[in-house]
TrEMBL record:
It is a multi-pass membrane protein. It is found in: Cell membrane. This is DUF421 domain-containing protein. It comes from the Bacteria. Signal peptide: none annotated. It comes from Candidatus Borkfalkia faecavium. Belongs to the UPF0702 family. GO terms for cellular component: plasma membrane. Its main location: membrane. Residues 80-202 form the YetF C-terminal domain. The chain crosses the membrane at residues 6-23, 56-76. Keywords: Cell membrane, Membrane, Transmembrane, Transmembrane helix.
Length: 230
């Protein structure tokens, strides 16, 4: 028991020193390859702590080897930008001046629900509140708001009505509307089918955010049916 305690303490000190030498970037802004390295170091540390038949030096040597490989990769990244892009990836702009970038969402295996959840986490509840939004290479979400919000608009939570060409039945129920209401809206705007619409949101004040596939987004207001409120 005492031997395991001493071995664990030694490995703990070694791990603490290695993680400290890796710098704050390793902890606060973990890139994909750094996550792999962190998981690998954790696995290597467990083996000599639990198995006294394995020399402690083997575990320490493995951890130090991973650390030196990590430092080598960082050095190569600083000297060779294409290598950094290949290993870490690059930020994906999912909202731009034209609205949502469908191709970037699909490339990152994201849907509208994921994006809206990220927006709420950043403090924005409407798609047209931000001029640009992107997912960094480490998965962190960043949004740049418009300089000003339109004057005179009351706060109203937008709900996702059309998600990638399909109606969200749950939100239709919450807004006390139906498909016929939006199909008539589509007809008036020259949209033949809901499948042409990538995203449509509606808030409690009647403001609509609409983006057709391959086109710039637009916002406008509609008169809500009687009893439609949330």
């Amino acid at each position: 028991m005492g031997l395991i305690f001493i071995r664990t303490a030694i490995v703990f000190v070694a791990l603490l020193a290695v993680m400290r030498l890796m710098g704050k970037r390793q902890i606060g802004e973990m890139q994909p390859f750094e996550l792999v390295i962190t998981l690998l170091i954790a696995e290597l540390a467990c083996i000599p702590m639990a198995d006294t038949s394995i020399p402690l030096l083997y575990g320490i040597a493995s951890i130090l080897t991973i650390f030196f490989l990590h430092q080598l990769m960082l050095l190569i990244e600083l000297r060779c930008k294409p290598f950094r892009t290949m290993i870490d990836g690059k930020p994906s702009v999912v909202i731009n001046r034209d609205g949502l970038d469908i191709s970037q969402l699909k490339r990152n295996h994201l849907d509208l629900s994921d994006l809206i959840e990220s927006l709420r986490g950043a403090g924005y509840f409407s798609l047209d509140e931000v001029a640009y939004a992107l997912y960094e290479a480490n998965g962190q979400f960043t949004a740049l708001p418009y300089a000003q919000k339109p004057n005179g608009e009351r706060a109203a939570l937008p709900l996702l009505i059309v998600d990638d060409g399909k109606f969200d039945e749950k939100n239709l129920s919450l807004t006390k509307t139906d498909r016929a209401f939006f199909e008539e809206l589509f007809r008036r705007r020259g949209i033949k089918s809901v499948r042409q619409v990538f995203v449509l949101t509606l808030d409690g004040s009647g403001k609509v955010y609409l983006q057709r596939r391959g086109e710039k987004f637009e916002t406008f207001r509609v008169s809500l049916p009687e009893g439609c409120a949330w």
